[in-house]
Amino acid sequence: MNVQVIYFSRKGSTKKVADAIASEFGVNAEDVKKATLSEDTFVFLGSGCYGGKPGKNMTTFIKNNDFKGRHIALFGTSGGGGGKETEVMETMLLDKEAVVKGKYFCQGRFWFGKKDKPSDEDINEAKQFANKLSQ
């Protein structure tokens, strides 16, 4: 299976999850600011949560690309958003006729708290999520 892992991260939490998912497929995670969708790939899209939404760069990427029929998995991190960023991305992608195969969320680093997030356990769960989707 050809896989792309594309993320937006400000403080590094989402990048940490993206790198873990990418490592399961032997690919490099791509910063959304530099990413280009490849043909015939299963795409993992991830973002941190900023005011209950994914990062602006991620929303712009979704708006500017054709996802019709493309299989997508979503992941997100936030200090207190509870996965709202993945819900917003899912709605945007369904409006573009994408096929959302799954979502993963964990807490991320937030200001001065939760400096140990995402934890090793969170990273292992992200890898399990990725592997489950690849079967």
What is this structure, in a nutshell?
The chain is an alpha/beta fold and 135 residues long. It has helices spanning 13-23, 56-64, 84-95, 120-133, and strands spanning 3-8, 29-31, 42-48, 71-78, 99-107.
Protein described:
The protein is globular, with a radius of gyration of 13 Å. Strands 2-1-3-4-5 form a five-stranded parallel beta sheet, sandwiched between helices. The protein has one domain: Flavodoxin domain (Rossmann fold). The longest helix has 14 residues, at 120-133. The chain contains four helices and five strands, in the order E-H-E-E-H-E-H-E-H. It has 135 residues and is of the alpha/beta class.
What is the CATH class? Alpha Beta
| Portion of residues within helices | 25-40%
Count up the domains.
1
CATH superfamily: Flavodoxin domain
Q: State the separation between the terminal residues, measured CA to CA.
A: 10 Å
H/E element order: EHEEHEHEH
The major pleated sheet works out as: 5 strands, parallel
